[in-house]
Design a protein that fits this description.
The complex is a heterodimer of chains A (633) and B (295).
Chain A lengths: L1 E2 L4 H23 L2 E5 L23 H18 L2 E2 L3 H4 L1 E8 L7 E2 L2 E5 H15 L5 E7 L3 E3 L7 H10 L9 H15 L2 E9 L2 E2 L1 H5 L9 E5 L7 E10 L6 E10 L5 E9 L2 E10 L4 E9 L4 E8 L9 E6 L5 E6 L3 H9 L4 E6 L11 E5 L11 E4 L10 E6 L5 E2 L18 E5 L6 E6 L2 E8 L6 E5 L13 H13 L1 H4 L1 E8 L1 E6 L7 E5 L7 E4 L2 E6 L3 E7 L2 E9 L5 E2 L7 E2 L4 H7 L4 H19 L4 H14 L1
Parallel strand pairs in A: 4-7, 4-9, 9-11, 11-37, 19-20, 19-21, 21-22, 22-28, 29-35
Antiparallel strand pairs in A: 1-3, 5-6, 7-8, 10-36, 12-13, 12-29, 13-16, 14-15, 14-17, 17-18, 23-25, 24-26, 26-27, 27-28, 30-33, 31-34, 32-33, 34-35
Helix pairs in contact in A: 1-2, 2-12, 4-5
Chain B lengths: L9 H7 L13 E2 L8 E2 L3 E7 L11 H7 L3 E6 L2 E2 L2 E6 L10 H19 L4 E6 L7 E3 L6 H9 L9 H11 L5 E6 L8 H9 L3 E8 L1 H4 L5 E7 L5 E6 L1 H24 L3 E6 L4 H11 L5
Parallel strand pairs in B: 6-7, 6-9, 9-10, 10-13
Antiparallel strand pairs in B: 1-5, 2-4, 3-4, 7-8, 11-12
Helix pairs in contact in B: 3-4, 5-6
Classes of the chains: A alpha/beta (633), B alpha/beta (295).
């Protein structure tokens, strides 16, 4: 037995005061009164003496008892009387409010209300049925379970948090939310109450296949009717065309979430200029792709739209930013430009400027190639030395050899990536005497024939080839263009990086990955590194909010605009033994362990009954007197 | 009642002008009344013939009959005598018991009857009484005399013990002329009032008994232990009042009222029982008109 608001002493003192006051008023009201009347003759029956009454202090003891009982009940209600201790009386409930992206869809037949509105109404209805002594923890559930409140006794805080809940960008991870709720209940220290899931229960196929619900003794589901037809964009991807670097190959994927086949139209705009439209016949619960080509070298926004509009508008539109196609300005000083021209002209990202060695000017460029030539003034910036003169080499030449043997490429260097040929024949080569900061890239039996160096500030890079790959039999080898491509990528990695742009849903993102995991960067727009994992040649990371994420791995870069909502695949069916819906009023009363409402009602009822039965101005008495008066009249 | 507070307002007085105090018996009196009498006299309506006697008024001789029959017959006409109306108003202490509503109601009723009589050119005499008759006020000659009667009523003060027998005896001694006697009282006389009223009727007076009671007089609202004091005698009675006692009290009161009514009806008089909770207008235009006290 416990009083939540008053101690036992306070209660007894208060009740004693009120009872004493009530008894005093009662005795004052019921004491003998003097009355002057017109006659006494009718009070005395003929033939009998006047009645002599014994003075009694309490005329209507039942009235006094009723008054005291009513006031005692009301005081008990004020004191919030309870049986048992407070710890045993209180239970902790967890309300899991679905805030997945799908909750932004409109209700069936109610375009002005969303599933989130319905879920909020359900949550508030359930909250009203929770006993006031119990605590409630609100958890917002999408891909992550996030507690929105602490264990709250104040229903207003919980209701405010419910009303402030908004649909997110990710899909529901129900298992994680239920496990989180169960864990929080175990740690609360009080008796576990209900775990309530409020939402339509749309989950992904991956979660459906691996679903493992924790053991929940009191599990309630507040279902939300989401039987609406929806189709939406699943992803939009753009990559440089393999045949034309000025063209983007765009693939738009759409899905039909309803059980009926649907015909949709996908339109594509770039910079507000229509790029095309495709009509897709989507099977029930199926996906289809539409391909587009966008010819541009400029940067801009690519927009994909899906028609007709449906109940869930968030996945009917996607936009991604296409980057500008950059190029590298290469100035080549050579007296045999015809030997070099095919190699440099093969890549459209290279703008080659061939000049005679006599026309040399030390002016800046993206890359300066000096073919068998060393000027009086070394160029600034990135320089590719091809077979420099042995007596005037930027790297000291130890000796000059003909038909060197045992050519081998230094592994694990970006400049020698993919070079495996060991039987390449060189007519002649210079054996370098590299410095301590020079990187050896290729060697023959007598020493290094290719070195590279980086300036101390890291801005300028030099590559020195002790041989001419564009002369002799090597010009027909595959190693020559590969070596040149490696040099170009090394000096200007941003220009030659393969860029893929895509838009897909937020949440858990997976992408195939075959590069070295050590060189991966997953960056947000603000440059913050996102945590990621590489498993089974798949890179995975998580973005809880719509954002743009860049994944840089070696020579490739993928830019993800995670603006599409993460959608569901299947509808979760609750187990048969769960409680469903908002508790009925009698159920809420049955579960209610608060006595004070009943005590208050009972106390008020007792006082009302006392007034009706014994009150001087009670309606029963007034009506009886009125009837007598009317009869007399 | 404060002097400035009028017993009846002007609108109510105007409504009273269509009423007439009515009695059934024939009384001898001065010509000029409005109630017909079986006594012959100088009225306008023919009543009968009789033989002429010496001293009769020659103007009443039927000369046509004399010429035809050679006998003198006298034409008799029905008279409408002006009979004095006397109103006995109880001013005993019992009329002021409780909150004094009964006394106020009695004076208002007396004032209304005075006005009705004055409008019909009746002569109405208000005689307050308790243990004896007090000095009364006679009013007649038209409605403009109402002011004097009202002032007289307003000045009355309750007090004294009711003694109907002494009052009736005094009345019969002082007012031997028979007529209509209106008694406005609660008739609460410890020694009983029935015999005195019967005595009054036996002397040829027509009785109009108006019994007044307050709600407390008939249905006492009290419960519990009460010390009752008689307003007139000062006697005390300590009693335990409950629903049964109240019911018995009301039955005894109704029996008493029935006795008063029986006295009136037995003597061809009229009776009206009026609770003070009833509006005065309803009492006059309802209960008293139904009792044929006023027409």
């Amino acid at each position: 037995m416990e009083f939540l608001n008053l101690s036992l002493g306070q209660f007894l003192a208060l009740f004693g005061t009120v009872a004493a006051f009530s008894v005093a008023l009662y005795l004052l009201d019921r004491t003998r009164r003097k009355q002057i009347v017109s006659t006494l003759r009718f009070w005395v029956e003929p033939g009998k003496a006047a009645p002599v009454t014994r003075r009694t202090r309490i005329q209507q003891p039942f009235s006094l008892l009723l008054q005291l009982l009513g006031m005692a009940l009301l005081l008990l209600a004020i004191a919030q009387f309870q049986f048992g201790g407070r710890r045993n009386a209180r239970r902790d409930h967890v309300l899991i409010l679905d805030t997945s992206a799908w909750m932004g869809a409109a209700l069936p037949n109610r375009s002005d209300l969303t599933l989130m509105d319905q879920a909020r109404a359900n949550a508030l209805g359930w909250l009203r049925a929770v006993p006031t002594a119990d605590r409630v923890l609100l958890v917002r559930a999408d891909a992550l379970a996030t507690p929105a409140t602490s264990w709250e006794l104040d229903r207003r805080n919980t209701a405010r948090a419910i009303l402030e809940s908004q649909p997110g960008a990710t899909a529901l991870n129900l298992s994680q939310s239920l496990q989180f709720a169960s864990q929080m209940q175990r740690r609360s220290g009080s008796l576990p109450g209900e775990i309530v899931y409020d939402g339509p229960g749309r989950i992904s196929t991956r979660e459906s296949n691996n679903m493992s619900l924790p053991e929940i003794p009191a599990f309630r589901v507040l279902s939300v009717d989401d039987n609406v037809a929806n189709s939406g964009l699943r992803s939009v991807g753009a990559s440089r065309s393999a045949t034309d670097t000025g063209t983007w190959d765009v693939v738009v994927r759409a899905r039909n979430y309803s059980t009926q086949p649907k015909s949709v139209q996908v339109t594509l705009n770039f910079g507000n200029v229509p790029q095309g439209a495709r009509t897709l016949e989507l099977p029930p619960a199926g996906e289809k792709e539409a391909s587009f080509e966008v010819h541009t070298r400029a940067a801009g926004v690519l927009e994909a739209r899906l028609y007709p509009k449906d109940a869930f508008a968030a996945d009917n539109y996607a936009a991604l930013e296409l980057p500008e196609l950059r190029s590298l300005h290469v100035v080549i000083y050579s007296n045999q430009p015809e030997e070099l021209r095919p190699a440099f002209a093969s890549d459209s990202r290279v703008v080659a400027d061939f000049r005679r060695t006599a026309d040399y000017r030390a002016e800046p460029a993206g890359l300066v190639v000096l073919h068998r030539f060393r000027p009086a003034i070394n160029p600034t910036g990135n320089v590719l030395w091809i077979d420099p003169p042995a007596d005037n080499s930027p790297v000291p030449v130890r000796e000059r050899v003909d038909h060197p043997e045992g050519l081998r490429w230094t592994p694990d260097q970006p400049l020698t990536l993919g070079l495996r040929a060991r039987d390449v024949q060189l007519d002649t080569a210079s054996i370098f005497q590299p410095g301590p900061n020079d990187i050896r890239l290729a060697e023959v039996d007598k020493g290094p024939i290719m070195v590279a160096s980086v300036s101390p500030d890291g801005r300028n890079r030099n590559v020195v080839l002790g041989f001419d790959p564009f002369a002799g039999p090597m010009r027909y080898e595959l190693a020559t263009p590969l070596l040149l491509a490696n040099v170009l990528r090394w000096v200007a990695p941003d220009v030659f990086r393969d860029v893929d742009v895509g838009t897909q849903s937020a949440g858990a993102v997976s992408m195939p990955f075959a590069s070295d995991p050590g060189g991966v960067q997953v960056l947000t727009d603000s440059g913050v590194n996102l945590p990621y994992s590489v498993r089974n040649k798949t890179l995975e990371f998580f973005a809880g909010q719509p954002s743009r994420v860049r994944v840089i791995a070696g020579n490739s870069e993928r830019v993800y605009s995670l603006t599409l909502p993460e959608m569901w695949d299947v509808k979760w069916t609750p187990p048969a033994n769960v409680r469903r819906g908002i508790p009925a009023w009698n159920d809420a009363l049955r579960r209610n362990r608060d006595w004070w409402p009943f005590l208050a009602i009972l106390g008020t009822g007792v006082l009302l009954a006392e007034w009706v039965l014994y009150g001087r101005f009670s309606p029963l008495r007034i009506r009886a007197v009125k009837q007598r008066l009317e009869k007399a009249a | 009642m404060p002097p400035h507070e009028a017993l009846l307002d002007r609108e109510f007085l105007e409504r009273l002008e269509r009423l007439t105090i009515h009695w059934q018996r024939s009384f001898a009196g001065l010509v000029g009344g409005h109630n017909r009498s079986h006594f012959a006299g100088g009225g306008q309506e023919f009543l009968d013939h009789r033989h002429f006697h010496q001293g009769d008024d020659l103007r009443a001789v039927n000369w046509r009959a004399y010429m035809r029959l050679d006998k003198m017959f006298l034409k008799m006409f029905q008279i409408e005598p002006r009979v004095p109306v006397r109103l006995l108003l109880d001013t005993s202490a019992s009329m002021a018991a409780g909150n004094g509503e009964k006394f106020k109601f009695a004076r208002q009723l007396a004032a209304a009857l005075c006005y009705v009589g004055l409008v019909r050119l009746d002569t109405i005499q208000v005689l307050p009484f308790a243990s004896r008759l007090h000095e009364g006020k006679s009013s007649g000659g038209g409605r403009h005399r109402y002011r004097l009667a009202a002032e007289f009523l307003e000045a009355l003060q309750p007090g004294g013990i009711t003694d109907f027998f002494a009052v009736v005896r005094q009345y019969l001694n002082e007012y031997p002329q028979r007529g209509l006697v209106i008694v406005v009282s609660d008739f609460l006389d410890e020694s009983g009032c029935e015999k005195a009223l019967q005595f009054l009727a036996d002397y040829g007076n027509e009785l109009m008994l108006v019994q007044l009671w307050s709600d407390e007089d008939r249905t006492p609202p009290w419960s519990g232990e009460i010390d009752l004091t008689d307003a007139e005698s000062g006697g005390h009675l300590r009693i335990q009042v409950d629903a049964e006692a109240r019911r018995g009290y009301t039955e005894a009161f109704d029996l008493f009222s029935a006795g008063i009514k029986e006295v009136a009806l037995r003597n061809e008089g009229k009776y009206a029982g009026l609770p003070t909770s009833m509006p005065l207008e309803d009492a006059i235009f309802g209960s008293m008109v139904r009792a044929r006290s006023l027409v």
